[in-house]
């Protein structure tokens, strides 16, 4: 089936191409680690130093591979990269990983080392030259030992207090970028749509009409809240993070909050749909109180009283208006 792809199979690579692939991979990994370091430097300087140390290790590996290639094949290294080899492991772009939490980035680095170890182990088995086999075996062992190196670097740059500060910074950024806008959206979607949905329900007792009003109110509120959050603050001065992320969190959770008690009105029987909608409203309001307690450190019963009381007042207003 090789005619279906232009990429080479690993088993078809020559020894020179294997070494060239290793050289380009080490260069890419060093650049990835330096990219992590640069993106983390402002908020997580100790972890940035850790990745700089790992990048320096990759540079040393690349230098040894270049010396081997020059001694065997000369100074001109063939251009072969990961994407040229079928089945070869890929790296996630830095601009994708940088949006993940700091622990997830550390896990990504550990996975990179494991994949590199497997590559060198297989590459060593594919070579016949003694010096090449030895170097590739040494590099496989080095990649396996990188976890120990990473631990040493972590011990050097990430003492208990430093790591605690970085973890606290990461948690604060998560709350500011995702939790606060999402919570505001959920509260708005869950509470503000109660009046129009239940007013329509009790005024018409038509479940399909109620469903359409609920969907329109929820989606409209989601779009409005999303755009408002995104354009109100670019995050530069406030430190609240990407406006796109905040807009998505706010808009999606606003829509979800309203759709939760609109969906039961797909059921044709009015009182069955309304009873289920009441239950969903109860769950939504308690979920909001739990999130406030979990992430905003608001005492649970105070949060529950505020949210449930506010929601109950809006719900009662909708029912009274619809019944009148």
TrEMBL record:
Keyword Protein transport: no
Topology within the bilayer: Multi-pass membrane protein
GO cellular component labels: endomembrane system
UniProt keyword Transmembrane helix present: yes
Domain Rubrerythrin diiron-binding: 17-153
Organism: Seohaeicola zhoushanensis
Keywords for the protein's UniProt record, in alphabetical order: Membrane, Transmembrane, Transmembrane helix
Domain of life: Bacteria
Location(s) in or outside the cell: Endomembrane system
GO BP: any one term: intracellular manganese ion homeostasis
Pfam families listed in its UniProt record: Rubrerythrin, VIT1
TM regions (residue ranges): 273-291, 303-322
Taxonomic lineage from the root: Bacteria, Pseudomonadati, Pseudomonadota, Alphaproteobacteria, Rhodobacterales
Record protein name field: Membrane protein
PANTHER family: BLR7895 PROTEIN, RUBRERYTHRIN SUBFAMILY
Cited InterPro entries: Ccc1_fam (IPR008217), Ferritin-like (IPR012347), Ferritin-like_SF (IPR009078), MFS_trans_sf (IPR036259), Rr_diiron-bd_dom (IPR003251), UCP035918_rubreryth/DUF125 (IPR017040)
GO molecular function: manganese ion transmembrane transporter activity; metal ion binding; oxidoreductase activity
């Amino acid at each position: 089936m090789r005619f279906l792809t232009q990429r080479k199979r690993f088993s078809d690579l020559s020894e020179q191409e294997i070494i060239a692939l290793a050289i380009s991979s080490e260069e890419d990994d060093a650049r990835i680690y330096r990219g992590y370091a640069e993106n983390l430097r402002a908020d997580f300087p100790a972890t940035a130093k850790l990745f700089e140390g790992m990048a320096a290790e990759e540079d040393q590996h690349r230098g040894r591979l270049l010396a081997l290639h020059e001694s065997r094949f000369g100074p001109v290294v063939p251009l072969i990269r990961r994407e040229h080899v079928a089945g070869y492991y890929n790296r996630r772009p830095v601009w994708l990983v940088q949006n993940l939490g700091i622990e997830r980035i550390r896990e990504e680095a550990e996975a990179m080392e494991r994949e590199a170890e497997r590559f060198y182990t297989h590459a060593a088995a594919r070579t016949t030259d003694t010096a090449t086999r030895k170097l590739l075996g040494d590099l496989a062992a080095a990649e396996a030992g990188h976890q120990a190196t990473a631990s040493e670097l972590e011990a050097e740059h990430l003492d208990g207090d430093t790591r605690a500060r970085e973890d606290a910074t990461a948690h604060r950024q998560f709350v500011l970028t995702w939790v606060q806008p999402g919570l505001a959206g959920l509260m708005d979607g869950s509470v503000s749509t109660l009046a129009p949905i239940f007013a329509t329900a009790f005024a018409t007792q038509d479940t399909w009409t109620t469903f359409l009003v609920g969907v329109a109110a929820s989606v409209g509120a989601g779009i409005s809240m999303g755009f408002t959050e995104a354009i109100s603050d670019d995050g530069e001065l406030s430190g609240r993070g990407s406006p796109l992320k905040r807009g998505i969190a706010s808009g999606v959770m606003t829509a979800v909050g309203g759709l939760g008690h609109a969906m039961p009105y797909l059921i044709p029987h009015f009182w069955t749909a309304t009873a289920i909608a009441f239950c969903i409203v109860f769950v939504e309001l308690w979920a909001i109180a739990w999130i406030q307690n979990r992430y905003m450190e608001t005492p649970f019963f105070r949060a529950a009283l505020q949210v449930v009381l506010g929601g109950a007042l809006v719900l009662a207003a909708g029912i009274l208006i619809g019944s009148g």
